[in-house]
Amino acid sequence: MFCYLHAPFCRSRCIYCDFYVTLDKYAGESGHTAFMDAALHELALRVASLSSPLTCWESLYAGGGTPSLLKASHFDRLLGAMRAYASFSARAELTLEINPDALGDEPRRYREVGFNRVSVGVQSFDDDLLRRLSRIHSAQQAKDVIEALAESGFDNISLDLMYALPGQSLDQWAQTLETATTLPVTHLSAYGLKIEDGTPLARLAQTPRYAAPDDDLSAEMYAIAVDFLQARGFARYEISNFARPGFESAHNRNYWRQGDWLALGPGACGSLGETRYETARDLARWQAAPLTGALQAITPSEALENALIFGLRMGEGVSLPALAEKFGATALKTVLARLEPHRARGWLQESDGRLTLAPQAFALSNAILADILPSDD
Predict the structure, then answer these.
(1) Three-state SS at 7
(2) Can you tell me whether residue 230 is helix, strand or coil?
(3) I need a surface site. Which of 135, 172, 246, 363 has the fewest CB within 10 A?
């Protein structure tokens, strides 16, 4: 079983963020302890509700928010509770998201309690762009934290980077990539900035200073990232994710393969069988009733569409025989017919029963994958 924990605490809210977060100044040590108490309670309830016994844990991903604001001792409690239900597999991936300005403990302490992977929210190595995004760390802080993590024994370090930022030039993006690849990292996620409705950035984007780059410039930035990273040993295994051999994210792969995972914490999304759930996006309400939230039953047709949409994001693509066996050959044929125009253009490739996006089609993936869903006509 895979597990995700959403720790909602942040020192400040970034202008582009639409995740559920709460300012950490209102929490403090007592708030962190109360949060973990509730997470352990939710874990017990979720495990008790499973239709079959747990055999082992394949991963824990502590995200947020800024989970690195919590001390290692808080996570020690969580990992101890998880081990009481099932052991971790020998290859289990335990990831902690870290913001460069926010470490509740020394890096080695997180390593000692069991984390073997960290994901650092860098976004950019340009201080002007960081300020424009309302990030409160500097480029130097990010580099210092990454070096400290490596020195403390972490040999699996991932960075989150963003492109298509307001005012960002090609040279600034290339320099961020250059800096990132000179650091001791094994994995890079490169995401184009998406302006979400209701965020401060959605309002600011109407002003010249915060206007997003046009689509052509954004596509050029993506192409630069692909060529630059692959030339330096980072293979693209998913549209936005690059890794050195053997360092692909197990947690993310499970998500793209539509596997099951337990989700804990306010505003966390989980998936069990044909059911998706999201917990209450409110810390107090979640603490009072952890299982309160939205449930969604996934129909077989939706499950097939999701398997294609998420599976085709990966370089490995999808196995057509496996999908036909699971969902039926007729249902699969019906959905694949919607993709026939893209196949005719050479944007989809089939080999040995696997369907993949052609390399030149990754930049067009949003438009291609959208056609998997039935039209409203």
Answers:
(1) strand
(2) helix
(3) 246
Tell how strand 269-272 and strand 235-238 pair up: unpaired
Q: What whole-number distance in Å separates Cα of residue 257 and Cα of residue 239?
A: 14
Pair 372, 339: CB distance under 8 Å: yes
| Residue 289 three-state SS | coil
Q: What percent of the chain has pLDDT over 90?
A: 91
223 alpha carbon, distance to own chain's centre: 21
Handedness of CA 79, 84, 90, 93 (dihedral sign): negative
Q: Each residue of 212-247: b (16+ CB within 10 Å) or e? A: bbeeebbebbbebbbebbeeeebebbbbbbbbeeeb
Is the pLDDT at 5 greater than 80, yes or no? yes
In the DSSP assignment, the letter for residue 211 is P
Q: Is the pLDDT of residue 307 over 80?
A: yes
188: its two tokens: 């890079």
pTM: 0.94
Q: Is 276 helix (H, G, I), strand (E, B) or coil?
A: strand
Name which of 374, 304, 357, 296 is nearest 332 in CA terms.
304
Query: 55 is written with which tokens?
Result: 């055999």
Chain segment 174-186, per-residue pLDDT in tens: 999 999 999 999 9
User: Looking at the predicted structure, is the pLDDT value of residue 377 above 70?
Assistant: no
Where are the alpha helices (H) located in 50-195, listed in sequence order? 72-85, 107-113, 127-132, 139-151, 170-181
Is 141 exposed, middle or buried, given 0-12, 13-18 or 19+ CB atoms closer than 10 A? Answer: middle
> Across residues 270-280, what is the average pLDDT?
95
**pLDDT value of position 376:** 61
* Residue 303 CB burial class (10 angstroms; 0-12, 13-18, ≥19): middle
Assign 117 to helix, strand or coil.
strand
Residues in contact with 228: Cβ distance below 8 Å, sequence separation at least 6, in sequence order: 174, 177, 178, 181
Residue 329: its H or E element: helix 329-337
Using CA atoms, how far residue 185 sits from 109, 136, 351, in Å, is 20, 22, 33
Tell me the pLDDT band of 28, cut-offs 50, 70 and 90.
Answer: confident
